[in-house]
Amino acid sequence: MANPTSNCNNNNVIVFGPTGDVGGFAALEASRRGAKVWLAMRDTTKTVAVLQEKESSFERVRADLSDAASVTAAVRTSGATAAFVYLVPTNDGLRSSLAAMQAAGIEFVVFISTYSIPSNVDVRAVPASSVIAFEHAAVEAALEDLQLAHVALRPAYFASNPFKLALDLSSSSSSSSCLEAYVSNGDCLVDCIAPDDIGRAAGALLASPSSSSSPPLKRIFNLCGPQLLTFDAMLAAIGRVAGVDVHIHHLDAARWVDVMADELRALPRPAAVFLTEYYARGFVSAQDARYAPAVANVRALTDRDAMSFDEYLRLHCRRLLPGVGGGG
């Protein structure tokens, strides 16, 4: 197939949220492909971990995606024509901020959406009860309504999620040789796509948005990791690479929601409920017609195979589990 990231280069781009791994890798990839990259940050003094020694190649500008005025100022300062954005909960699905960046000169957007939006479903038909899908769909709808050319990248289960949604990394447990983990549906299969790969796909699209001189208003790319693992197997792999024992607590859905929403993560309760229902249905399966093409999309967009979960852990476990076990 033709490389979807050739020709029509964007030479000046802005990345909102570069302190996150996806945003950081998007910035790196866009820069690697020749774009001038601006880092739009709420706190311009904050460290961007994945940029490391290459950070001097990037300009910083203050902006908050939930504040349309700051978005306008950042885009005007940068002169960027393409932007990377992610979900920030607002009352209007980021519509005000997207309109502001469009008025300030942005012509193309790469938005990190979610695989939980069903294929071939109008984003306006996603029910509010499907909280995570609904919130991302609202941003996609805003982009469509504004007639702002964009790509919706729809990754499935982030390889970083177990560190945020399963492991207890509180100070009381992180100093020991054992980590506690809390899961609902431990046999649920997930694809473990690396944030590195999601960010590289976004950065490639930012720097070279289309091989066509008249790209469509909207393109969608599902993204998946190359192997399906159960939650239990994924946590066992973390323990093996980190050199610690992982004690898995298998909770029923109601108890897991309580732990995530009230005791451990402060995850919004509706989002926790949605996740338990999604896990019960099965997150990803090899029989899902979207799965194989979503794995292939990583190579098509980045020119490299999707990273395995073990490879992701070897690269990042020490940073994600500071002071724990061997740390990768």
UniProtKB/TrEMBL annotation:
Pfam family, one: NAD_binding_10
Superkingdom, taxonomy of origin: Eukaryota
Domain spans labelled NAD(P)-binding: 17-162
Name by which UniProt lists this protein: NmrA-like family protein
Organism encoding this protein: Phyllosticta capitalensis
